[in-house]
Every structure is written in C-alpha cells, then in structure tokens.
Design a protein that fits this description.
Elements: H1 2-24, H2 29-51, H3 64-90, H4 93-99, H5 103-115, H6 121-137, H7 145-169, H8 174-199, H9 211-234, H10 239-245, H11 249-261, H12 269-295
Helix pairs in contact: 1-4, 1-9, 1-11, 2-3, 2-8, 2-9, 3-4, 3-7, 3-8, 4-7, 4-11, 5-6, 5-7, 5-10, 6-12, 7-10
C-alpha cells in the first residue's frame, strides 16, 4: 500500500512539469498533442517490439474490439490534453493547472453514475474543499474566462479518462495498453485536425528550435513514464483518490511557473489559503482511504 501511494505522488510530481512545458513549446495545443502522442506511440512500439520481445509484457495481439476499447480511452486522454494546453495558452500555467484540480469534483459526480455505486457524500465534501481553494486562488478574473472554461472542460475529460482507464486497464497489460491509447488518440486527433483547422487556423505544424528538446522531455518523462505510472496506480487505488491527489499538481506547476514565467502575482493571502485547502483535501482523502484499506 505504501509503495502504491509513493508511485502515485511520484506521478503527480512528474505531472507538475507538463503545464510549464505546454507553455514553453510554441506549437498550437492540438499540434503539440499530435506530436506528443505520435512520438510516444513510436517509442512504445519499438520498445515492446525489440527490448521486451522475450517478456510477458512484450507486444501482444488483441482483438479489434479490445483495441477499440483501449483506443477510446486514449481519445479521452487526447481531448483532455488538447483542452488543457489550450487553457494554458489562452491564460497562463497557473490558471490551467488550478482548474485541473476540479478533476476530483467531476469524478465524485461521474463515478457513481458510470460504475453504478452509491454516491459518497464524504468524497463530494472533499471536492468542495478543492473548489473553495480554487475560488480563493483565482476569483475568476474576467481576463482569464476563456482559459478557465477550457480548463474546466479539460478536468471533466480527465475524470472520464481516469474512470474509463481504471475499468478497461484491469483487462490488459499496462505497457501494451499505453501503446494502444497513444495510437487511438493519435488516429482520432488526426481525423479531427481538418475540422479543428477550419475553426482555429494552425500557423505551423512542426516544432522549431528548443521545441524539440521540450517535446523529447515531455514524451519520454511526462508521457510514457507518467502514463505507465498512472495505469499502474489506477489498477491499485480508487480513481477518486488518484484524481484528488492530482490536485497537488498545481502546487508544483505554479512554483515552477513563478520562476520561469514570473507568475508571482497570485502569491497573496488568498493564494496561500487556497493551496492549503487543496492540500488538506488530498491529505484527508488519502488518510481516509488508508484507514479503509486497513479495515478491509
């Protein structure tokens, strides 16, 4: 159990870099995600095909129905990424990552419906602490309305992804599932790009300069490494606990953005109280889940 929670918090720490990288990379959000998924799919295919050939985790054959299931989960992840980076580019890193904290709230709403179990008032209460924390950090400045809307949609999509990933991931090996999630998201996004380009014209389809370095780090560490950790964690820890713990991601991202982009204006009393409430909600849920597991 302790190892599982260590892996969970390690994945959150890694996730803290994604928002910063999303702003550093100069590509449009949809194209950024396309390159991210394409590179990750190629690396995972080569790795499973060559490095793990003689292991049980090597490239496995699946029925088309199974590939569609894993690819559909990957499409949810793809859409989450597109809206997440669009939120950051429309406002700033802090807005994007703090809106992501609403994942716990959406999970508390969606999970009882999708998994058909009793609604948990306790989980909803923990989520309300997060919402109050977000409100105190950013009191919905009119300049950031578009970024906030995109960020809220992004968090809802990630909640759906986490729930679907937990249900589907129980039936497949983690590394193979990651490959087909990347492929599914890549194929789906490729089909949507012409429509996307009609409404949001894309000025450049390829990276330049330091974009290559940032993309490499994003793909290897923040995509392949992070997604493998998430798949493993979601198979062992409830989706609500995972999503609520990911509310710590804004803490890491905001601290990084303070130094890199000088986003220090949010460092006021409300900011400190808001972050404290988010952390408290994570600590309470983690402590509650550990106690429940011990009783079981």
């Amino acid at each position: 159990m302790k190892k599982d929670y260590f892996l969970l918090h390690l994945s959150v720490f890694i996730a803290g870099f994604t928002g910063v990288l999303g702003r550093l990379i100069t590509l449009d959000s949809a194209i950024l995600v396309w390159w991210r998924m394409a590179a990750a799919a190629v690396i995972m295919f080569v790795y499973l095909r060559i490095v793990e050939t003689r292991r049980a985790t090597s490239l496995q054959r699946y029925k088309f129905k199974d590939i569609l299931q894993m690819g559909g989960v990957g499409m949810l992840l793809c859409l989450h990424w597109v809206f997440f980076y669009a939120s950051i580019k429309a406002s700033n890193v802090s807005i994007g990552v703090v809106c992501f904290s609403l994942v716990g709230f959406f999970t508390a709403l969606f999970e009882p419906i999708i998994n058909k179990h009793k609604f948990s008032g306790r989980e909803f209460l923990f989520s309300l602490l997060t919402i109050l924390g977000i409100y105190l950090i950013f009191q919905f400045d009119a300049r950031y309305r578009l970024g906030i809307v995109l960020g809220v949609i992004s968090s809802a999509l990630y909640a759906l992804f986490a729930i679907a990933n937990q249900r589907v991931g129980k039936h497949y090996e983690a590394k193979n599932m990651l490959l087909w999630e990347m492929v599914g998201g890549l194929v789906g996004l490729t089909c949507l790009l012409p429509l996307y380009n009609m409404f949001f014209p894309i000025d450049r389809f390829y990276p330049v300069g330091m974009d290559y370095t940032y993309l490499a780090f994003m793909v290897v560490v923040c995509t392949i490494g992070l997604c493998l950790l998430q798949i493993i964690v979601l198979q062992r820890i409830p989706a609500f606990t995972v999503n609520l713990t990911y509310n710590l991601e804004p803490v890491y991202s905001i601290i990084l953005s303070m130094f890199i982009f000088s986003e220090y204006k949010e460092l006021n009393f409300s900011f400190c109280i808001g972050i404290a409430l988010i952390i408290i909600s994570v600590v309470l849920q983690t402590w509650s889940e550990i106690r429940r597991q011990k009783k079981v």
